[in-house]
């Protein structure tokens, strides 16, 4: 069933969009990521313009993340205090990101920037997560005790410390705020919740227990992506409501299913699965950039706008 998207100005299959939303919702519930890092490139692949895909996908992430958070709140696996600190940085970062996005849009370079950002970030994060998870699985299988992450590192020497009881941490608020700022900027430019960066940062940088990372990540993602969507809708007019609703319906249902699956799998297995998916999407995006050089640069006609 073909449906016309007024803002994107293309016709797509409604069931395809529902299916994509559902698939990304499952990932959201399983891994604590908004799923935008996979959904936004998938929207590129089916012909949605990058500027519309980024702004609209931020909208869909809000719903699938909200659905996932409700499931985690019932299990008491959300550190609300840590989530709030991350959120402060996230809102500031989102505002900066939308300003940068608008500037690049006025130069006509936003599509290229979004695609390049995806290739770089997905390649780096996916590679690091894959090798770390592989190492952890090998150590577990060989009977070795997996070395626990050091509880004390340079972060613990920073000022402005706060106690996060749910995570069992007493650390400076500076690193979580900076992580939030970085994620907020990415949310605005790439149409992602930022979970694919925030989840590893919370585990390896802040030293949070894996069981509370997923719920806390989703909690922060809800507010940052809602704020980003609002800014894009009011400054760029690139939020396609028809596209958002179809993705939303699939995403909310999928997030509940994903949360159930996630609780039955080991942390190392979850991380390696996520890493593989990240690398596959990165490879496809890089291939598109390399195989279609005609789309990388656009030459404006002299005096034309």
UniProtKB/TrEMBL annotation:
<feature type="transmembrane region" description="Helical">
    <location>
        <begin position="112"/>
        <end position="131"/>
    </location>
</feature>
<dbReference type="GO" id="GO:0005886">
    <property type="term" value="C:plasma membrane"/>
</dbReference>
<keyword id="KW-0812">Transmembrane</keyword>
<feature type="transmembrane region" description="Helical">
    <location>
        <begin position="270"/>
        <end position="291"/>
    </location>
</feature>
<dbReference type="InterPro" id="IPR051598">
    <property type="entry name" value="TSUP/Inactive_protease-like"/>
</dbReference>
<dbReference type="Pfam" id="PF01925">
    <property type="entry name" value="TauE"/>
</dbReference>
<feature type="transmembrane region" description="Helical">
    <location>
        <begin position="37"/>
        <end position="59"/>
    </location>
</feature>
<keyword id="KW-1133">Transmembrane helix</keyword>
<comment type="similarity">
    <text>Belongs to the 4-toluene sulfonate uptake permease (TSUP) (TC 2.A.102) family.</text>
</comment>
<protein>
    <recommendedName>
        <fullName>Probable membrane transporter protein</fullName>
    </recommendedName>
</protein>
<dbReference type="InterPro" id="IPR002781">
    <property type="entry name" value="TM_pro_TauE-like"/>
</dbReference>
<feature type="transmembrane region" description="Helical">
    <location>
        <begin position="237"/>
        <end position="258"/>
    </location>
</feature>
<feature type="transmembrane region" description="Helical">
    <location>
        <begin position="203"/>
        <end position="225"/>
    </location>
</feature>
<keyword id="KW-1003">Cell membrane</keyword>
<feature type="transmembrane region" description="Helical">
    <location>
        <begin position="80"/>
        <end position="100"/>
    </location>
</feature>
<feature type="transmembrane region" description="Helical">
    <location>
        <begin position="12"/>
        <end position="31"/>
    </location>
</feature>
<keyword id="KW-0472">Membrane</keyword>
<feature type="transmembrane region" description="Helical">
    <location>
        <begin position="169"/>
        <end position="197"/>
    </location>
</feature>
